Amino acid sequence: MNLLSPLRNVKGVGEKTGEQFSQAGIHTVGDLITFLPRTHEDFSHITTIANIAPGKATIKAKCESITTRPVRRGLRITTATLADETGKLQAVWFNQPYRATQLKPDEEFYFSGDFEFNYNRYQLTNPSAEKVSDMPVQTDRLLPVYRSIKGLKTTLVRKILAELRPLITMLPETLPSTIVKNQKLISRSDAFIAMHFPKVSEDIEKARERLGFEELFELLLASQLNRQENAKLKGWHIPFEQSVVKEFVAKLPFALTGAQRLAAWEILQDFEKAVPMNRLLQGDVGSGKTVVAGLAARQAAHEGFQTALMAPTEILASQHAETLQKLLSPFGVTVGLLTGSVKGVARKTLYAAIADGSVQVVVGTHALIQETVSFYKLGFVVIDEQHRFGVKQRQELLKKSKHMPHLLAMTATPIPRSLALTVYGELDISILNELPKGRKPIKTKIWSPNSRAQLYELVDMELSEGRQAYVICSLIDNNPDNELKSVQVEYKKLQNSIFKHRKIGLLHGKMKSDEKESVMSDFAAGSIDILVSTTVVEVGVDVPNATVMLIEDADRFGLSQLHQLRGRVGRSVYQSYCYLVTSTSAKPSERLREVERSNDGFYLAEVDLKLRGPGEIYGRSQHGALNLQIATLADTKLIKRAQDAAKAFVASGEDLLNYKELAAAVQYNQRLTTLN
Asked: In the chain, what are the domain boundaries?
């Protein structure tokens, strides 16, 4: 038997069990060995109910009685009375109704969870339950807990892995021996043994260090090699003309911030190099990224090069085209907008103008990467909210040039340093961390849904001053299975009752492009007082007169997304407000508290990484593909070690192909993160 053997060849895996594993993406012996526990339960310290104290606790008890009841739509609470020879206590589970059939009254279980004060009593909250008869003979050990696979018990996963233990002890090493030795890491086989069959908690710590280092090393080595490959490419030489840049800056209706000046200078210096620029411009919401891109596009146009700016939505593309038109038309630079809404003769005319070079700056959506689009001389590519595009889409746009064009990727989601080092390791990074002068910090407050009447009064006062407001809901249509607010229902409610004296607009992703465009134009023109919308306004929408952002069910949004939505207001000299309305009157989450406390997107990005992991920041599909099971991008020390080791490996000139498994993982990561 080897790592590629079908799992069905293993003792204890029948036809049905094999099918259940397959549905979870576990097909081979190797897949199961690398299916790591999500946590470990410590059954080495068992206390009696009489001696239990607040905090993490494990007891050995029987279930005397158990009931499950629905509390509200989407939430069921299961409550049990647990007893041992010294006393009784209550345990409670949220949305785990299967516990009622699992906990047979005549069987003993180990219950492990947090013993805490809730609902006027002490109780065990969401404890795990392990049947005593299923436990190994020696109970003074740590037990791995695996991600649930439909129809399969954790005990069965453990039994099958026990069959594979001899194979795990013979797992080959994947890292160069010098790195394992210099970093004082345990071997790969020892790491997997420790994860699946730990004796003490120190075993798990050493295993996590080894496997986490390996994941980060693979990712950082891929970045180093991508950077090397980029350095071999030939790009366009776009010389710096001081008079052109000075004239552009002088005609701006505002002063550039110091951060904007530095970022623009870094881009213009890259333009002069023979190697194509590969730069990420990250700036907090409202920090002025488009102006920096516009300045660079002006320099490119002066030297006879075209610029293409690709945005993820039509609303955002239209916004960029309008901004760039204002910035560049005084210098005779023509800006074209290519989206799905441009059809017929207008589309053919635009294609021709792009092909003959009479349109120097083309802003668009995915429409830019169609085969029918041919550029005259594409020298500069800007990709906005680049994490929303796949690698292939970015590459398709870059292919539309004879030489590799200079690339500027922009993101309004500030990226923590650790994520920038790993996922964007091949990029040079420019940061906009200053807001334009005259902007006031947005005042953010969490509101209970029970205080909605007072909140609406505050919103109406702002509207009376001539300002405008957003109301954001997470759903488009009403869903009977949950209580979250939908834009359709909220729109009708506000229109027909509370704000019937105001003009209300509706915006969501299912509307046709021209309908969305019309609503946004009306809102921008001030003819709509309140825009009830989904998160389609999350990025790039710029209406300086809007000063209120009211987010319904705010506790259901990610921290990064809340910060993005808040950034739609506070874009002028007027004081702006962000109101976070929770879905229940329960205590607000730490995530909401952090958004209430801070307007600093870079600080919030670090918090988001710790609270939720990199999925929110990098984009779910790419993060899923990264497949980081062990490494945490908040562990800056381990990242630094892996980065230094990757640099040393590249500098040593050693052949990566000598390490087959490592080479495969690195090549996978290279395809995943590369921009060129």
From this structure: 45-139, 242-272+287-411, 443-598
